[in-house]
Amino acid sequence: MTLKTEPFVLNVGPQHPSTHGVFRMRATLDGEVVVDIEPIFGYLHRGIEKLAEERTYTGVIPLTDRLDYLSSMANNLGYCLAVEKLAGIPVPERAQYIRVIMAELQRIASHLIAVGAFLNDCGAFMTPIVYMIREREKILDLFDMVCGQRLTYNYMRPGGVSQEIPDEFLPALDKFLKQMPGWIDEYDQLLKENEILLARSKGVGTLSQELAISISASGPVLRGSGIKWDIRRADPYSIYERFEFDIPTGTVGDCYDRYRVRVEEMRQSLRILEQARQQIPGGEFRSKVPHLIRPPVGETYAHIEAPKGELGFYLVSDNSIAPYRCHVRAPSLLNVTALRDLMIGWKIADLILIFGSMDICMGEIDR
Amino acid sequence: MTLALPVKDTAQRIGEHFADAVTEVTDGAVIVKSEALFQVAEYLKTNPDFDLNYLTHITAVDYFDYFEIIYQLTSLNNNHSLLLKTRCYDRDKPVVPSVVGLWRGADFQEREIYDLMGISFKGHPNLKRIVMWDGFDGHPLRKDYL
Amino acid sequence: MKFERYGIGIAKGLRVTFKHLFRRPVTVQYPEQKLHMSRRIRGNELIWDKDKCTGCATCAKTCPQGVIQVITSVDAVENKYVVEKFEVDTGYCISCGLCIEACPYEALYMGYAYERAKYRREDVIQTNEQLLPSADRLRSGYMYPEIAAQLPRQTLLLERITEEEE
Amino acid sequence: MMIFNPDPSSVRQMPTLAPDWPGGFWWHWLLFTVIIIAFVLLLVMGYIWLERRAMGRMQARLGPNRAGPFGLLQPVADALKVMLKEDIVPVNADKIVHLLAPIIAFAPVLIIFAVVPFANGALLADLNIGIVFVVAISSISTLGVFMAGWGSSNKYSLLGAMRNVASVVSYEIPVVLSIAGVVLITGSLSMNQIVLAQEIPFILLQPLGFLIFFIGGCAEINRSPFDLLEADSEIVAGFHTEYSGMKFAMFYLVEYAEALVISALITTLFLGGWRGPILPPWLWFLVKVMVVFFVMVWTRTTLPRVRIDQLMALAWKFLFPLALLNLFITGIEILAWPTAIAWLIPVNIAVMVILVLLWSKLFKLGWGRVEV
Predict the structure, then answer these.
(1) CA of C2: which chain D residue's CA is closest?
(2) Taking the domains of chain D in order of start, what are their residue ranges?
(3) CB of C115 within 8 A of CB of C71?
(4) How many angstroms away from the CA of D365 is the closest CA of chain A?
(5) Which of C114, C57, C56, C113 is nearest to C88 (CA)?
(6) CA B46 to chain CA centroid, nearest Å
């Protein structure tokens, strides 16, 4: 006798503890097994691209803070690079270094949240994420010291940064650089070799190289699949060609690889930070830029390696004080394209895990 | 450094394969006819000289007279990139061939453009609104949407 | 997947959590225990220096949210603008600090205080006198290094933890 | 030292009543009912406090510290809050099933304590089939959980309930088999006799049995890493997603009361129950119970959650064969050397280590993906 079963539809999100925001997945399940899945977005759509068309070039920077709210500094940097490229604004040496320091600190902060949330999705009850948030808190303190905010920094400007870093910043950074490697090692001890984590995440949600390239994946998702592609190396922006660092890659492209790539990237970011700390020169922190920037007619695309992947800004100027068109190439949006392929056939528990390993920020997907 | 492919040469090579596909060559971009877009894109992707296997992003700009759809293509192996554009002069029913068949990454981006700019992509497997709700009136990113 | 490591990974993890049992927690018990905020904090209020303000409304033009409203009249005798109304709708303010940066006469400051929640919506809109600096409306050092130097040093979690461990 | 050789007469009698108690059976019954209810409720509060505090400290937090000294009154405050909450029944819910579920889940947990000895002979009913009684009753809670999952008409609840049923059905077997080893050594099913037999705590004589019982017990009561039925990152809150107010409090109570049951059983079966030097027996019992629970909290803080198929694989491929082997080896030992015991301790521990290592090599969790 065969039992007649039929699949049922389960709504995961928009209010669900581990959809990292207001993501929604309409999952069709056969028992515990995911048969089909459809991602649905739009719950956090604020129309940032449209809003940007009505603001001055400087006034868009607070909007970019709100794209991927876990890596505002990187967003600021990406946007400012685009405006500088468009308007031909030079950036002083010292400002370049400050920017690199901020961007790399931001990468560590963002990866801490990504790794912590991923481990929390595995079911390690709150512990990893609390540890990670503690470390992130130290970075946020540094950001707070520099720009007065903990989440929406609005620190970088076309032509430099808004303010000189305070005197106590560099000693604090030194302290952070001294402590952080030890903490990363300790968190590796916590769950890196844990049998249950290995059983849960090895071989789960394997993203093949072909698929990764086809879906335009970027960042740790792409590198987790074993493709050595990092914008900092492939197309060095700012002053990244001066630093030595490795590009960690995974081998198979499963959840575990993506998790390890993020942890290794934190280590590499620390290396960059050490070098930048040593080399930072004196001088101006901002070049002379008119209050209202009027770039010549034209268009440009500037991209950076944000923590989540390739963040690009496509700006079109019509020689007015506001961008004619400001398109954001959001890494999260492209990374979720493969969700359906990765999740089908796995259990509902893996669905959460694979989603967690993608490290998604809804502010960026919906914009 | 990611090398921007020289547009003139590229346009010429495209022209060799697809007569009058290229309508214009601007500073840094190759503009092709929207009818020939898919074939040109396929050629650029599969030809080993170009090998533009990575679609960095797609976007669309509303210039009132026409819509410009921009494809930023990158080759991960050769580390060069090309800006491919197409134009769409019909304002009421703009249609452009979809490139989802070549790059899966175009899926959500084309849906987004359809949603916000109102350009439909012929051949897209699941063309429906992505960020606005179904039944929303208008396309917010158009310049005449207020 | 095999249990090839015989539970060594699990044991390592258990060691880390057990070590934490004897570490000082990082919790700050907020209302009783307050940390010093950043000297450059962008607190949730704007402070306006009436004497320095010339009514040029650069701040209003810069504000991405359009929350600053400046109404001026012309003083023909002294040949300058007189500010009649300077209104900030802090409810819409995103604390980006662009107005402070833009002000050419150093007449606008961010507030140092951060506990400025209001019970009524109308209280959120602040006008003229409500915006002036006072004893409990300290100015923050955002964009003003000389003010920052007078404010207390920021408490860093980084230092709190190491000091306690030493 | 020798293996406890029960006196045939003491086994045959039914010591349900404490013979020297004034008033006899009924006083005994009343007193122990009160003691058990008070014990369970108080200790559950203690557990909640311990779990939240210990977990907080392990996570570099403080944990609750506002209500009362060290936050000791936090469970009381929670209980008050939860009682004042609105009682919500979903529109599509099967109302009777929905309402009955928490009660059905809670009652058996209390009943189990009837056979748990707090001191020598201090138990409500010294059934001569005590341990069988425990095994039989403890599974009934599952029914309540399943009713909750079914009656809520919520898909998350149903998923959680199904997971619970699956895990309890499979984990019952290794758990019972590991108990059988203890029973073999003791020669009695009575809980009191089992404690009396533990001159040496059985954790030393039955290390493998203890390991299996601990893992299986954790899985049965759904403590982490086996907390699949309320996996909060996956299925929101599992079977009690739709519960609020007092009904939720009942489930919360059940969760911790079950943890209490398992830690009391581990204490009784493997750690020598109330036995111990200097301190009074009931205190020893409490201390041991708390220590066992602390280990559970500790693992919960550290470990990620296993997946449902891995949970099943662990039960059937890892624990079940080991439990069978353990029973077999124990039987041989008892047949061959009924009196010698001291040198059996290192032998048993060695056997456990070898078996676990060997099985770790052989054992495979399987591949999680299903072709659809």
Answers:
(1) D364
(2) 88-364
(3) no
(4) 8
(5) C57
(6) 17
ipTM: 0.84
Those residues of chain D whose CB sits closer than 8 Å to some CB in chain A are 55, 58-61, 155-156, 159, 162-163, 224-225, 227-228, 231-236, 300-310, 365, 367-372
For β-strands B29-32 and B80-88, DSSP reports them as parallel
Contacts of D324 (CB under 8 A, 6+ apart): D177
> Of the candidates D260, D132, D131, which has an alpha carbon nearest to the alpha carbon of residue D197?
D131
Measure in Å the smallest separation between the Cα of C151 and chain A Cα atoms. Answer: 12
Distance CA D99, CA D93 (A): 10
The answer for residues whose C-beta is within 8 angstroms of residue A338's C-beta and 6 or more apart is: A207, A211, A212, A215, A217, B104
Query: Do the beta carbons of residue D115 and residue D134 sit within 8 Å?
Result: yes
Q: Which two tokens stand for residue A135?
A: 């470390």
pLDDT digits (tens, 9 = 90+) for A205-214: 888 888 888 8
The C-alpha atoms of residue D99 and residue D369 are separated, in whole angstroms, by 37
Tokens of D57: 């400290």
CB B85 within 8 A of CB B32: yes
Give chains near D: 3+ CB pairs under 8 A.
A, C
Spatial contact of A37 and A59, defined as CB atoms under 8 Å apart = no
Give the tokens for residue A320.
């007015």
Tens digit of pLDDT at every position of chain D (372 positions): 334 444 444 443 444 445 555 556 677 777 778 888 888 888 888 888 888 888 888 888 888 888 878 888 888 888 888 888 888 888 888 888 888 888 888 888 888 887 777 776 666 666 777 788 888 888 888 888 888 888 888 888 888 888 888 888 888 888 888 888 888 888 778 777 777 777 777 777 788 888 888 888 888 888 878 887 777 777 787 788 888 888 888 888 888 888 888 888 888 888 877 777 777 777 888 888 888 888 888 888 888 888 888 888 888 888 888 888 888 888 888 787 777 667 777 777 787 788 777 777 777 666 667 666
- Other Cβ atoms less than 10 A from the Cβ of A184: the count is 19
Round to whole Å and give the CA distance between A287 and D194.
Answer: 83
Q: Any bridge partners for residue B73, and if so which? A: B55, B82
Residues of A whose CB is below 8 A from D231: 123, 349
CA separation, residue D136 to residues C141, D19, D122, D131, D227 (Å):
70, 27, 22, 9, 22
Do residues B58 and B106 lie in contact, with contact meaning Cβ atoms separated by under 8 Å? yes
- DSSP structure class, residue A27: E
Place of tokens 């207001």: A22
What whole-number distance in Å separates Cα of residue C158 and Cα of residue A180? 10
At residue C63's C-alpha, the angle toward residues C60 and C67, to 5°, is: 75
Whether pLDDT at A215 is above 70: yes
DSSP label at residue A301:
E
pLDDT above 70 covers a percentage of chain B that reads 100
Whether the CA torsion A168, A173, A178, A184 is positive or negative: it is positive
Cα-to-chain-centroid distance, residue C73: 32
Query: Do the bridges between strand A309-317 and strand A298-306 make them parallel or antiparallel, or are there none, so unpaired?
Result: antiparallel
Beta strands B80-88 and B3-4: pairing type?
A: parallel
pTM for this model (two decimals)? 0.88
Mark yes or no for CB contact D304/A119 under 8 Å: yes
Give all strands (DSSP E) within B14-89, no chain letters. 22-26, 29-32, 54-62, 67-75, 80-88
Say whether C12 and A55 touch across the interface (CB within 8 A). Answer: no
Beta bridge partners of residue B72, listed in sequence order = B57, B83
CA distances from C14 to A321, D224, D271, D302 (A): 58, 13, 22, 6
Contact C2 D62 (CB under 8 A): no
